[in-house]
Amino acid sequence: MKREPVRPEAQRARARIGTTATRGARLLEALTAVVLLVLGLFGTGCTPTVGSSCELSTDCGTTGQLVCDTSEIGGYCTVVDCLPNECPDNAGCILFNFAIPGCGISRQDPSRISQPFCMATCSSDSDCRAGYICANPTESPWYAWIQDSNWRELVCLPEPVSGFVGLAASSALDTDAAVCQQIGPTFDADFPPIPDASSADGADGNESGPGDAASHGDGD
Predict the structure, then answer these.
(1) How far is residue 156's CA from residue 118's CA, in Å, rounded to a whole number?
(2) Taking every pair of C-alpha atoms in the chain, what is the biggest distance, in angstroms?
């Protein structure tokens, strides 16, 4: 069978179609790359970290590493019962309720209600969310303990109600509160001992009443 020669118009049409398809494929690839880049940047910017606001623990991520401390202002993504130097990046392990206000601080004998949390590290208040300040957790009114090797690290902490931090916040505290004394009082606040029943009966038998005294007087 003899093939008819392809006309120049048909060749040009096919060339245009091929060029358009190639351009469309390249444009689609470019758009896909842009979308993936945007999603990557968006995902990185919204990844919860220690100190992020939250309402539920799921707001802090799906790995289960971070939980939401709803007792803090706006919620606070953190790690509970952290170990020294093992908090995520840009976070420090802080032992709260370490000491009783007004009592001395002893690292070897912390308070029984103490508990460590990962807190976001900072260098100024601008690094913290609204309602939080960048401060030394060992100062008043927190009296916490820094578990990490860097004992000078600052973390984002809830702003005190009084607005005072450090010496200004502790000026009203008694540094020698009686509750902290290791030596107890010299007196015993317990009830007096109850006498033994047999000794009580014996004492009653030896005692002389008014009638006995009168009878002895009549005999004389």
Answers:
(1) 10
(2) 172
Other beta carbons less than 10 A from residue 50's beta carbon: 25
In the numeric block, the tokens 């008694």 are attached to 174
Query: SS in 3 state form for the chain?
Result: CCCCCCCHHHHHHHHHHHHHHHHHHHHHHHHHHHHHHHHHHHHHHCCCCCCCCCCCHHHHCCCCCCEEECCCCCCEEECECCCCCCCCCCEEEEEECCCCCCCCCCCCCCCCCCEEEEEEEECCHHHCCCCEEEECCCCCCCCCEECCCCCCCEEEEECCCCCCCCHHHHCCCCCCCHHHCCCCCCCCCCCCCCCCHHHHHHHHHHCCCHHHHHHHHHHC
Residue 133 burial (10 A CB sphere; 0-12, 13-18, 19+): middle
Judged by average pLDDT, the poorest of 79-83, 110-114, 126-130, 131-135 is: 110-114
Phi, psi (degrees; rounded to nearest 5) at 33? -65, -40
Q: pTM for the complete prediction? A: 0.57
For residue 217, give the amino acid letter.
Answer: G
Could you read off the pLDDT of 48-96 as tens digits, one per residue?
A: 999 999 999 999 998 889 999 999 999 999 999 999 999 999 999 999 9
